[in-house]
Amino acid sequence: MSYFRENIQATSGYIPGEQPKNPDIIKLNTNENPYPPSAKSVEALHSYVIDNLRKYPEPVSQPVKEAAAKVLGVDTQEVLVGNGSDDILTVIFRSFAGEQDTIGWLNPSYSLYPILAEIQGANQRFVELDENFELPTDLAEQAKGCSLFLITNPNAPTTNSFCKEKIREFCKSFEGIVVIDEAYGDFAETNCLELYKEFPNVIVTRTFSKSYSLAGIRVGMAFANKELTAGMHKVKDSYNVNALSQTMAAAALLDVDYFEETINKIKATRARTEAELTKLGFKVNPSQTNFVFAIPPIDAAEYFQALNDRNIIIRYFKGGRTGKYVRITIGTDEEMDKFFAATKEILT
Ligand SMILES: Cc1ncc(COP(=O)(O)O)c(C=O)c1O
Known about the structure:
The protein is of the alpha/beta class and about 350 residues long. The protein contains 13 helices and twelve strands. α3 packs parallel to α10 and α4 runs parallel beside α5. The chain starts with 5 loop residues before the first helix and ends with a helix. The site of pyridoxal-5'-phosphate (PLP) has 13 residues, from α4. Pyridoxal-5'-phosphate (PLP) binds next to α4.
């Protein structure tokens, strides 16, 4: 006998990527940014008046909203700030889907979605991407009846961006809420931020965990029209983002030069990684993210393990369509050099 609701009893819960204690490990497994956070954001943290920690933080993270308004050209009323974009996703699932509803997403994509749907006790619909991991031509048909549908763009773990026109068409015809999860949007050539202004049913989500090197402070944002953000504010925890995180996130957003410098470095290393792996016989999906998704020339599980034995950790999702692939986060050039050397050694 269990005290839990049946669906909580049944769910496995989300299994996060490993966070090893050994500092010598090269960690290419959770799509973190290899570069430090903006010096201006660190300075803002140091200037924070510690005595203020006696008080609750700003309840709606107004400083982050104001920074987003300046940098991204959004209205502060169109922003919801969360304790990471995972928190934002939780707020969205709780806001728009109950036990009678169906929540849909593309497959493969972010493995947290099914867990959040299980917690809600909602029905789940997996819409398979086509053989090139592109949107199926009958997406609208397949998503029909869902109250909430998630498009991860660019997609994880497959690394590709979907055609914006196709996403736009879908948003126009879909009757429920469309979430465009742009956790990796800053690494892509284009993004879909504008779509929340075009459609009353669109929410775009972003995070500070990847492009801003701030996974540890847990801040994410959602952009939607002010009716949707007002409703979601009723669902979020009263003080969902702590004061120190708000301070760092706002300063990081405003430090546009550093943001661009880091993104460009990662893109350059990404291009190098794609070329290097292709030379070594990998089949690499062209990436729009800060990681690559590739089929190694040997068994993917064995390759993953062989790297692990050499203190390099990447990610392997066994089974299904992902079992042939490995996912490798882009590290610094020095880290990637060690990763290439280890890969060569494993392959010979
Ligand atoms: C597609 C996608 N969305 C959202 C997240 C959550 O990011 P965070 O909660 O760190 O903001 C991740 C994290 O890896 C992700 O891959």
